[in-house]
Amino acid sequence: MQAKTTLLLSLIVFFNILFFLPPLTNTSSSNITAIFAFGDSIFDPGNNNVLSTIVRANHLPYGKDFPGHVPTGRFCNGQLTTDILASKLGIKQVLQAYLDPMVSNKDLLTGVSFASGGSGLDELTAKENNVLTMENQLNYFEQALKRMQKVVGQKEVKYIVEKSLFMIAAGTNDVCDNFYTLPTRRYLSLSGYHDFLLNSLEDFVNDLYEMGARKIVVAGLPPVGCLPVQVTINSFLPSFHMFQRVCKLQQNLDSQNYNNKLQALISRLQATYSGSKLIYMDVYNPLLDMINNPSAYGYDRIHEGCCGTGSVEMGPLCNKFDPTCVNPSKYIFWDAVHPTQTTNEHLVHNFQQTLLRQLVD
Are strands 277-281 and 215-219 parallel, antiparallel or unpaired? Predict the structure, then answer.
């Protein structure tokens, strides 16, 4: 009788252990020790807060749904994709900004973001907005490595970097600002400008690889023609009826052409880099699916942001004087460019379902 009771208790303990085991997406299964992010406002958690630029989000209503309802500098009502992914992988609750004075050397061991809102692969884009260039971001990463070595030593830092996930998102500001809106780079064809951007990206990825990065994810362009600010601009063009809010098809096709070239570049680099994993992150199709099938995701507003009129407000134009929607989760976009936290959650879910297994050792 006692033996049967002991066996029963053992089985109960065993199945309880199985039940409470962490999900397969945590650090132990993905073997990702840290996340380091680079690029523009999509990944910027507040680096611009300490820069002399108007491209900032450290004011309300930004952050209204962030823990503590604090405007941290994230261009969102809540968390960015990098925050959500870091949490789901069991690395940390949020991915801090490198330039945040509260970030310690120890914090760097699990990753930070060097991204800067308003930046781009074209150095001119960042300089026009007085924000961090991609080269600046790389220099800060080099500085971070030295700070990390003070905590755990060079050998351990090398191991951490090799196991870390490096994420890059840039290019949208370049095509929207320096090609579509301003004539800055119009001496190039659009295809030529895409090549120019991808050459810059290739140099950046090469530098990351030389610095030890082995797991690199590069996000493609979103459907640029569906960004609320682009919809607004294009609604006044002669080919459209006044105030008609629809996606600009040609700009979406342009984004697809860029993404096709980007995927070819990543395939070529993957074949070149020994022991590395370079992955293209598709943002275009998941986001377009949300726009084309909003009810499937619980959305009812697709062509305007939650902040203000949702047509042009972003950065300094989205401020405490602007009314915001009652329920941001019903909106794909928070302001005229940036996704809501709910949209970011959908994007991370797609990343986990389609790409995460490729990064597992």
Answer: parallel
338 is catalytic: yes
> What is the separation of C-alpha 342 from the centre of its chain, rounded to a whole number of angstroms?
14
Q: What is the pLDDT of residues 229-275, one digit of tens each?
A: 999 987 765 544 455 789 999 999 999 999 999 999 999 999 999 88
Half-sphere exposure (Cβ direction) of 330: Cα atoms closer than 13 Å: 8
User: Has 44 been annotated as catalytic?
Assistant: no
Is residue 254 part of the annotated active site? The answer reads: no
Task: Find the catalytic residue in 40, 107, 174, 335.
Answer: 335
| DSSP string for residues in 34-65 | -EEEEESTTT-SSGGGGSS-S----STTTTTT
Q: Model confidence over 134-164: pLDDT tens digits?
A: 999 999 999 999 999 999 999 999 999 999 9
Count the Cβ atoms, other than its own, within 10 Å of residue 234.
20
- Active-site position among 30, 41, 164, 311: 41
What pTM was computed for the model? 0.90
Domains of the chain: 27-223+251-297+338-359 (3.40.50.1110)
Torsion sign (Cα): 239, 339, 42, 129: positive
